[in-house]
């Protein structure tokens, strides 16, 4: 399916997601690329507007442990009301991780929506149970975790989707590494990452393996606990744009999932979009239509098979690839035809 036409022209869309959603800037770019007028409400509300507000919240926290969170949501609502003052109605409202907002914010966004109010919950529903209070507020509510499909019977507005890859034009990069991975320190995958790093060093494979420390304070302790010369450690999350640059500089992308996730990560679709091989620990990937053993290696203590996998030719299926492009994905999310529906794997958990 060709999706390079400006199908969003004359359409307006509110983009409402927490600022720490790393790819929100890229989503904005891609929506603009397809012609949408984007009203981006993403902003950092964690900082206080002034010293007096800081002191007031600090005092309130003696009586209400949620005082800071309430203050942030009040600031967010006030900001949104001011930014949308010039708009009567907007064609679409697209939220991401709506559990981070509150009822007043969602009701306000709904009042500004002409066509469809949407949320994409690219995290397991049960990780943040508060989201169950909000599901019925949306016209279309998308899940990415196959284990959450059980809730589709109770909530008719829940629909399945995977993540996607960005398809607006970007610069090519020279290959600098064999393998690339970036992720936060997480106990559920730590030992496997260490084992993998040591294995690829033995095989003389070049790599760009990055672990993000939770705080600068524990950085040195973290470095010692991994004890791997070919792993880099950073204390500040890199931009998603920089992540994409690193991905383009590698021959193969690597994906170590955490125990809480069964949905397919953005790393999966970066590999698909850039025509790169993927090594992943997510076993559910073999149940998806784009899976090909030449392109995707499921890592499960089978390190001795990696070299054979790397030698196999990459198989491109352009039609399958376009199904998971942002162009088709946003058509499906907004229900703009034509589009190809994106389903989640049928797996019993």
Explain what you see.
The protein is of the alpha/beta class and 349 residues long. 31% of the residues lie in helices and 18% in strands. It has helices at 24-33, 51-60, 67-83, 103-111, 187-202, 219-226, 240-248, 266-273, 306-311, 318-323, 326-334; strands at 12-16, 37-40, 90-96, 113-121, 140-143, 158-160, 177-184, 207-212, 231-234, 250-255, 277-280, 296-298. It has a six-stranded parallel sheet with strand order 2-1-3-4-5-6. β10 (250-255), α8 and β11 form a beta-alpha-beta unit. The model has no long low-confidence stretch (mean pLDDT 90).
Give keywords.
349 residues, alpha/beta, 11 helices, globular
N-to-C CA distance: 33 Å
| Spatial arrangement of strands, main beta sheet | 2-1-3-4-5-6
Uncertain segments of ≥5 residues (pLDDT<50)? none
Rg value: 21 Å
Mean pLDDT: 90
Biggest β-sheet, characterized?
6 strands, parallel
Q: What is the succession of H and E elements?
A: EHEHHEHEEEEHEHEHEHEEHHH
The helix count comes to: 11
SS-derived structural category: alpha/beta
What is the molecular shape?
A: globular
- Give the proportion of residues in helices: 25-40%
* E-strand count: 12
Lay out the secondary structure.
Elements: E1 12-16, H1 24-33, E2 37-40, H2 51-60, H3 67-83, E3 90-96, H4 103-111, E4 113-121, E5 140-143, E6 158-160, E7 177-184, H5 187-202, E8 207-212, H6 219-226, E9 231-234, H7 240-248, E10 250-255, H8 266-273, E11 277-280, E12 296-298, H9 306-311, H10 318-323, H11 326-334
Parallel strand pairs: 1-2, 1-3, 3-4, 4-5, 5-6, 7-8, 7-10, 8-9, 10-11, 11-12
